[in-house]
# Entry
Amino acid sequence: MQFQQLVYFVAVAETRHFTRAAEREHVAQPSLSQQIKALERELGAELFSRARGNIALTDAGEALLPLARRILADADTARLEVQELLQLRRGRVRLGATPSVCTGMLPEVLRAFHTAHPGIELLIEEGGSLDLVRELARGVLDLALIVLPLPPSAPPLTTVELLTEDLVVVSSRELPPPGGGGELTIADLREEPMVMFRHGYDLRDLTVGACRAAGFEPVFTVEGGEMDAVLGFVRAGLGVAVVPEMVVAHAGPGLRATPLTGSPLRRTIALAHRTDVAPPRAARELKRILVG
Amino acid sequence: MQFQQLVYFVAVAETRHFTRAAEREHVAQPSLSQQIKALERELGAELFSRARGNIALTDAGEALLPLARRILADADTARLEVQELLQLRRGRVRLGATPSVCTGMLPEVLRAFHTAHPGIELLIEEGGSLDLVRELARGVLDLALIVLPLPPSAPPLTTVELLTEDLVVVSSRELPPPGGGGELTIADLREEPMVMFRHGYDLRDLTVGACRAAGFEPVFTVEGGEMDAVLGFVRAGLGVAVVPEMVVAHAGPGLRATPLTGSPLRRTIALAHRTDVAPPRAARELKRILVG
DNA sequence: CCCTTCCATAGGGGATGCCTATCGCGATCA
DNA sequence: TGATCGCGATAGGCATCCCCTATGGAAGGG
# Structure
């Protein structure tokens, strides 16, 4: 059974005429006759009763017609759906991002993407960089905005560096600035009780690692919150925190950002996806917007 | 798009493995690879992400898979349905028959046919021979048991003579036999008031024609009924009627059948179908049982 | 570092689809 | 009744396609 044969069969069934069906399908009449005959041979039954001037479906033809129509319609649908995916009229991107990116650069980028491709569904997964890498590997995410460097346990990922953020110490404007108002180094944080993110945030590992490298263990007054909660605790004067500079700009009043001098803390945000599977078309387009 | 390509596509999607899919489809691996590639070329999109040891569907592949499955299932269904028609496991016969045949030979034949092919729907159209011929021509009936000879207006029909019935004069046992108990000829009916069928019954034309040939116009006490009604009127003594011998045997008590001597009236029952269109398989089978 | 696994590519041979030309058969009409 | 027309079937040639075997090439595993 061939698609072409079904097309010809439906054409003859609808025109009740071999010659006119051949014209409609832009094919020579003998070709069409042959294909109908081949189909009849394969099915083992005549499909048309060829009475002179009155081509009619046999019962086998009647049985085949609705199925043939549905098969051809499904084939058209398949072609159409794939085209819509290609043309980004439909589709889905599952994007992971760290909280700071979500509140920082992402809204504007997603707005631009959605305007360009309103048919594409955008699913954002907010989480710590390590979680996101794991979810990329599991195939739950198409793309993720993660923090470099990748952990050693990371699967083969293709990464593109997007930006490097300086980390600053954020504190409440209600309290005196940390370090007494002068320059601030990591070592100065030894004296400052801190508000710390939950496990999974790369900022936690980064900060704790920097403190230990400076020779002390940081002291937490509160720990375990997400980004917004941590900033709220800082604003309430529970302690200081180390966050990306970009976050403070969006965090509203009541907070003070103090840069770190000496060996500045920074982190690099990169766009990552699995190396072994090409991301879907829509994800590639989002990557193009993010990187370009 | 080819059925074969969809088969291969589904096989790869299910095995996640080109080589094993090729084995499953009993085809060389390069052939399968080529067909998948051809399908991808036609659709303009990759269907699989060919990561080493981890073949996965792309989004285009995901979109295609359910449609491909349905298309292949429909194709199987089409083949199956046609086979069931061929094997008489399903189907329909629209059979026309005159009332006398319906009450006479038909029940036994239909019982045998239904036992042999319980999946075949039997639609019986009871009517006068002329009506049946018209309905054959219109394609409303597949087969009909009609009375020969065919009228001149008949379309091209293929007929097979089944049996020749003698016509008898039926009368009420409550009354003296027509013709005074001796032999009975058509001419004797000149004195007998008759009960006559409605127009359309070939028996009407046959009887009236015979009377006229004998030189008189028959007199009707009642006219217009179907077979059962006519027999009822005769039983009630309203007159005599000319009916097939076979009918009297099934008509119950109270009736007397008197054969016609001299030039006996008879009629020939034949099975007819259109010459220009082959009857459906199930109808041909019923014909085989009727004729054989 | 070699070997295995697995998909892609190359090239040849048989099958298949489409073409033009022609036949056969009813129907129509003079 | 014979010529013509309409329409589907058949015949034969040509291009294409599909499948085959052989081989390439890249990614893991021992």
